[in-house]
Amino acid sequence: MSDGFKSGYASIVGRPNVGKSTLLNRLMAQKVAVTSKRPQTTRNKITGVLHLPNAQIILVDTPGIHKSEKTLNDMMVKASLSTFSDVDLILFMISADRGFSDEDEFVLNSMRWVKTRKFLIINKIDLVEKTSLLNLMAEMSQKDLFEEIIPVSALKDEDLDPLKNLILNCLPEGPEYFPKDMITDCPESFLFGEIIREKILNLTRFEVPHSVAVVVEDMQEQGNGVLRIDATIFAEKDSQKKILIGEGGSMLKTIGRLARLELEKRLGAKIFLKLFVKVKANWRDQRRAIKEFGYTHDSF
Ligand SMILES: Nc1nc2c(ncn2[C@@H]2O[C@H](COP(=O)(O)OP(=O)(O)OP(=O)(O)O)[C@@H](O)[C@H]2O)c(=O)[nH]1
Ligand SMILES: [Mg+2]
Question: Which of 30, 65, 129, 160 lies 20 to 30 Å from 95 when distance is taken between CA atoms?
């Protein structure tokens, strides 16, 4: 351990859609987790390692905590709850435009008795008037649970250094847990699958976004500088498969083109993206399929 080096874990938790993954990406200054306007976008714990001159902040983005009957959702929520006592700091996020809702209360109750230090992040302040923000801050300070209440716009704020510094102040002296070139512990293939899934979340509606899993099956350099990626999109029903393929294959083409462009930009290489669509009935209720698709959880 080098002298005075600080390191530790901070997990970002809250109900779905408050902007947790958006904040992770902004703090990291790069895309580590996918985001979308749909609730329940994130399905795993996603780690982002922020390397600072004399410190390492390990940020853990988590699935939105919510009530649901599905095994997948149950597993997602367990993944979030499991971070509470493993981290040095909990960043509990709510969104200013929705105020403190019953769903937020549900999350808050799940962490109320956890001893870990807690900050409240009020996100999306770009969407509200100053007076309603001040009222919300006053309401939340009455809960007497948070060391800090920090209003931000994860989407619009230019400077998140004040938040970084507050997090840093909470971290103990500790080792460099991750090597300097490591920014996440997610395998590259998983992130590529997520980028494809993100396009599907943006392009489809109703049950389709939630029913989809994407698995990168193979990645091969093709010699001519082209990287070939084979990925399978799993849906739960034939009707969903039809929507994902679209008329004359048009939807699948759009998904493929948007994902390929983003992957090419990210890797600075030409990509040949081959997408397949398959049906795996009720996979969200099958522990084995959930694991196979990469949505694992330690104690699950
Ligand atoms: N206006 C505004 N929108 C935001 C802000 N932060 C996030 N969003 C939007 O809110 C939506 C949800 O963002 P995500 O980051 O995917 O939310 P999340 O909390 O990770 O959601 P789950 O993974 O489903 O739990 C996206 O459309 C974001 O662009 C913000 O500061 N202002
Ligand atoms: Mg998310």
Answer: 30
Both 123 and 11 in one domain: the answer is yes
Look at ligand 1, atom 27, and give the residue with the nearest C-alpha: 37
Distance from residue 220's CA to the centre of ligand 1 (Å): 34
Given 120, 139, 170, the domain boundary residue is 170
The closest ligand to the CA of 198 turns out to be 1
**The pLDDT of residue 79 is above 70:** yes
Q: Are residues 109 and 235 in the same domain?
A: no
Q: Using the mean position of ligand 2's atoms as its centre, give its distance from the Cα of residue 178 in Å.
A: 23
- What is the model's pLDDT at position 297? 57
Structure tokens at 91: 């960043």
Residue 122 lies in a domain: yes
The domain boundary, picked from 139, 170, 201, lies at 170
Domain of 109, CATH number, reads: 3.40.50.300
10 with 158, same domain? yes
Does 159 lie in the same domain as 17? yes
Confidence of residue 299 (pLDDT cuts 50, 70, 90): very low
Residue 221 CA to ligand 2 center (angstroms) comes to 31
pLDDT band with cut points at 50, 70 and 90 for residue 300: very low
Q: Whose Cα sits closest to atom 16 in ligand 1?
A: 35
Report the SS3 class of residue 216: strand
The CA-atom distances, in angstroms, between 149 and each of 93, 145, 146, 221, 250 are 10, 10, 7, 48, 47
The mean pLDDT of 196-217, rounded to a whole number, is 97
The closest ligand to the CA of 76 turns out to be 1
- CATH code of the domain in which 265 resides: 3.30.300.20
The b-or-e profile of 232-265 (16+ CB within 10 A means b, else e) is bbbbbeeebbebbbeeeeebbeebbebbbebbee
Average the pLDDT over 221-238 and give the result.
Answer: 96
Quick one: which ligand is closest to 20's CA?
1
264-282 mean pLDDT: 97
How far away, in angstroms, is 187 Cα from ligand 1 center? 23
Determine the straight-line distance between the first and last CA of the chain, rounded to whole angstroms. Answer: 33
- What range does the domain containing 102 cover? 6-170
